Amino acid sequence: MSSPSSHALEITRLHFRYQGRGPNDPGFELQLPSLTLARGEEMLLIGRSGCGKSTLLQLIAGLVDPNSGTVHVGGQDIHALKGAARDRFRGRTVGMVFQTFNLLQGFSAMENVLVALLMSDVPKAQWADRAQSLLRSLGIERLDARAEELSVGQQQRVAVARALACRPTLVLADEPTASLDPENAVNAVRVLRDACREQGAALLVVSHDPSLEAHFARKERLDELMKRRAAHDSTREGASA
Amino acid sequence: MSDLTIVLRSLRARLFSTTVVVLLVAVSAGLLLAILSLRSAGERAFERGTGNAHLLVSRDGSPLVSVLNGLFYANSPKAPIDRAKLNELRESFPWAMFVPTAIGDSYRSFPVVATAPEFFSKFEPVLGEPWQFADGRAFDKNFEVVLGSSVARETGLRMGAKLVLTHGSGKSREGAGDEADEHSHVHKEYEFTVVGILKPTGSPHDRALFSDLESSWMLHAHDRFERSGKEKLVTAADLVDDDRNVTGVLLRLPSREGSNTPPALVSQYDKLRRDGSITVAIPSNEVQRLFSIVKSIDVLFLAMAGATLLSSGVAILLSMVNSMSERRRQVAILRVLGASQARIFWLVLTESTIVGLVGATVGIAVCATVLFAATAWLLNAHGIVIAPELDARSAVLVAMGTTLLAAIAGIVPSVLAYRTSVARNLRPIG
């Protein structure tokens, strides 16, 4: 059951092991003792490539199940929900922005945002207004242009609009600037932050790009978070000895 | 925006393969429907030819041959019915129609039916549709001839035209005696005048000429005189009973108004059958028997159409499975946006179902158009009435069957979509 919480995200003793598929894919282990993000808070999570940043976002979105631990989004343990209930909850509560934006090809900018609303419980009468105002506020004027007809920068804005369409509690951005040149990367982060702030959504950005650190008041390194776990474990072992 | 929009966009994204598969389904559904329609149309076309005769008496080898010869003019009946037997038949029952016919002569390969005037007043070439003249009238004296509509069109003969007949149904042509086969010769001595041209009936009678019995008997009496070495222009006065033969009799029993099933049909049929010297046929039964014989071929055609339909189902399956690589990313995105696995399953299943439904609709529409055009062309160009009726039941069944097949074909890609790993398919391409 969902309970009122001041946190948009609350991770407790999360453990996920990926076995890997062979010598070229050795697998990895992700262990986080705790991580919280207040409602409306912004945070940058830095980590090297392949350390499990994207997997962490998938764990938070409930797309992958952990071996142990809990992930609460807006007070709801997302992994306690099963099947369609979890999908519905994700659609309503979590917005995601990807490195390659993952817009639906063949769909217009407007339709890409409307699809997100279709999966939500937002009344249909509000869909068009909400999609239009979001897209326009992000500088998209050609609402009926197909995704593939838009520039990279415009695609990124449409992806942001889609992530925010259902007024989510939490927006997860996976390497949102990796496909952009430095100038556009700065703009993209600004757009993302402004939009989330305007909608009151917490924002968790994961990236391997240290240049983004300047834009975020709160930044963490995934390997340091993991070390804290290791230190915590060794302290506990010492105490028990 | 609705789930249907997502499905339609997905189909549009693969416009070429969608169009090809829809056309394949359309051809299959149209073919199946055409075979179903033409099957019943063929049967109906044959049934039309039997007209309003309840019974046909001849001396052919079997009832089926009797009907094929006597009403469909397949061949000339070999054995005649003599005058005594004809009179005996006439007196045996108060027939509502008693029309003797003599078939054996021809004009440019078209059969000539020598018959009584009742042929035009009582016999209906198609049940409930009496003869209609496009021009002229029925014969009322010797050596007058009435043309079936196809004969008039194909020979170009007009009212008042003169023609001579060929004894036998060989490939001989008027005035081309050298080309006549050994069993036929041209009766140049007797000239017939065209006095009537019939409107099309959509029956085999359109390809026949009709004259009076006495003229036919005179032609053959002339042959008799020739064989005995006497050159003589025969008149009715020269006819003897042996000349007055017929090859068949079309019979109709009295029946209640509005009914074509006379109460005495079975008893009269049985009574006549006991006479071993004649062959009795119920024409409509023989047509049905003929169709039951050819039903196995019919089933073969249906099986072929069914196989084509099945292959179109396989094409849907292959097309959708082949598109899975591009579809997986779309599925993953929809899942991230909150679509459940079940919803993904139904979206893909709806897609294949729509392909089937659109294909079936296009197929039925094209089939109806082609059949309509072909029907009109056959009637105008050849006077053939093939009236394929696209009955709503067959069309609905074909549409439902095709759609169901498409839905079944969509199960495999739907399951693949259902099981698509979201995490794996959200990774950047390349």
Mean pLDDT of chain B: 85
Chain-averaged pLDDT of chain A:
84
Number of domains of chain B: 2
Structural class of chain A comes to alpha/beta
Features:
A: 241 residues; 7 helices; 9 strands; 22% strand; disordered C terminus; B: alpha+beta; 2 domains; 52% helix; 13% strand
Overview of this protein structure:
The complex is a heterodimer of chains A (241) and B (430). Chain A is an alpha/beta fold and 241 residues long. Chain A has a 5-stranded parallel beta sheet, sandwiched between helices. Chain A has a 4-stranded antiparallel beta sheet with strand order 2-1-4-5. In chain A, α3 packs across α4, α3 runs parallel beside α5 and α5 packs parallel to α6. Chain A starts with 6 loop residues before the first strand and ends with a helix. Chain B is an alpha+beta fold. Chain B folds into 2 domains: 171 residues, no CATH class; 227 residues, no CATH class. Chain B has 15 helices and 12 strands. In chain B, strands 1, 2, 3, 4, 5, 6, 7, 8, 9, 10, 11 and 12 form a 12-stranded mixed beta sheet that branches. In chain B, a hairpin with a 2-residue loop joins β2 and β3. The longest helix of chain B is centred in the C-terminal third of the chain and has 42 residues. Chain B starts with a helix and ends in a 5-residue tail after the last helix. At the A-B interface, α1, α2 and α3 of A face α1, α11 and α12 of B.
